[in-house]
Write a structure and sequence with these properties.
The chain is of the alpha/beta class and 357 residues long. It has two domains: 197 residues, 3-Layer(aba) Sandwich (Isopropylmalate Dehydrogenase), CATH 3.40.718; 147 residues, Isopropylmalate Dehydrogenase (3-Layer(aba) Sandwich), CATH 3.40.718.10. α1 crosses α9. It starts with a strand and ends with a helix. The structure holds nicotinamide-adenine-dinucleotide, 3-isopropylmalic acid and manganese (II) ion (MN). Pfam families: Iso_dh (PF00180).
Length: 357
């Protein structure tokens, strides 16, 4: 049996808290299964700046490249706001270096979560945002900041758009077969190119219905009628903003995982939120985003949908039992929520064994 190598980047502030919660769940779900793995804990983000002066040390990058999957918790925070280098530079660099051009951010409202939403929703809310991750205004050159002037460049090539679009249409084929391109084609040249290229890709997927929405209007529909979406395809900056907004309708940003993929090499799994400096060290960070990121890894990198499903149902069961952190209105600690999820995994396994002897 292959022993998978998993790179572990815990990062800053709540990063290490939720990473250790996630790794406890990974250990629990792997016990008595034939899934074997080894963890490679690596310096990254602010923690790496403090140790070696770089947010993405060479050894971290090389080890990530040679691993079967990468787990990342969160980086950044006020400690490095005025430092020579920022932790965020490491995050952008690892995405670019590993060619992780597509970032999948799911918004799914399980039945157990309906009452946590700030808006009226049903469990038919189930969409993913496919966010282009290695181009656009985050990476476009030139970009400059002087005393009285600053500019950034939003730039896309047809190739970059095409490969992200293909991921979106392939995802849609396995889901509700609908893609919505979110852009600002009434203003931006890059968006006009997105429209042309994505339409060409759409022509190769006759089973998938395809429409477009301006980003301002899409932001409104995510709140008013989220049930209409299946796959939202969009560029880097719009995807960043819309995914935090979409997270909110599930009740908390602290519950949303993500997966970043390229055309080859290991995928990277991380919560969509940041290092939450305001709650770090208080033992109240919601670990669900990290635990779900681990479930996504088991399913997508290791073909272990069975283990992923065990994790998802144990999470939803613990939400049902009101074992939730303050972001979801509860009073449980990070550890208590993690304990509850692990207990549910163990109990449902025991039940399964009882039912099958
Ligand atoms: P944030 O996502 O860290 O926090 C926003 C709000 O959500 C805060 O009130 C926080 O307490 C809450 N929150 C986030 N995750 C939570 C969790 N798991 N449980 C409970 N509450 C949670 O955004 P921010 O405060 O704007 O950024 C803080 C730092 O994180 C910045 O340096 C930013 O650049 C960085 N950041 C990193 C990543 C990443 O590592 N991928 C993503 C976003 C932001
Ligand atoms: C995210 C974050 C990052 C981004 C920042 C920290 C660079 O907000 O992963 O969503 O904008 O991509
Ligand atoms: Mn973000």
């Amino acid at each position: 049996m292959k022993k998978y190598q998993i790179a572990v980047l815990a990062g800053d502030y709540i990063g290490p808290e939720i990473m250790s919660a996630g790794l406890r769940v990974l250990k629990a779900v792997s016990e008595d299964s034939d899934f074997e793995y080894e963890l490679r804990k690596l310096l990254f983000g602010g923690a790496a700046i403090d140790e070696v002066g770089e947010p993405l040390p060479q050894n971290t990058l090389t080890t990530c490249k040679n691993s079967d999957a990468i787990l990342l918790a969160a980086i950044g925070g006020p400690k490095w706001d005025h430092a020579l280098k920022r932790p965020e530079e490491g995050l952008l660099a690892i995405r670019k270096e590993l060619g992780l051009f597509s970032n999948i951010r799911p918004t799914k409202i399980d039945r157990s979560m309906i009452s946590y939403s700030p808006i009226e929703v049903t469990d038919s809310v189930d969409f993913v945002i496919v966010r282009e991750l290695t181009s656009g205004i985050y990476f476009g050159k030139p970009s400059e900041l002087t005393e009285n002037d600053a500019f950034d460049t939003m730039r896309y090539s047809a190739r970059e758009i095409r490969r992200a679009a293909k991921i979106a249409f392939e995802m849609a084929m396995k889901r509700k077969k609908h893609v919505t391109l979110v852009d600002k084609a009434n203003v931006l040249s890059t968006s006009k190119l997105w429209r042309r290229v994505v339409k060409e890709v759409a022509n190769h997927y006759p089973e998938v219905t395809y429409d477009t929405s301006y980003v301002d209007s899409a932001a409104m529909k995510i709140i008013s009628t989220p049930e209409q979406f299946d796959v939202l395809l969009t560029e880097n900056l719009f995807g960043d903003i819309l995914s935090d907004e979409a997270a909110q309708i599930t009740g908390s940003l602290g519950t949303i995982p993500s997966m970043s993929i390229g055309s080859s090499g290991p995928a990277l799994y991380e919560p969509i939120h940041g290092s939450a400096p305001d709650i770090a060290g208080k033992e109240i960070a919601d670990p669900i985003s990290m635990i779900k990121s681990i479930a996504m890894m088991l399913d997508n990198s290791f073909d272990r949908e069975d283990l992923a499903q065990e994790i998802y149902s144990s999470i939803y069961q613990s939400i049902n039992e009101k074992n939730v952190t303050p972001d979801l209105g509860g009073d449980r600690s990070t550890t208590e929520v993690t304990d509850a999820i692990i207990k549910n995994i163990k109990e449902s396994r025991e039940q399964y064994v009882k039912n099958n002897v």
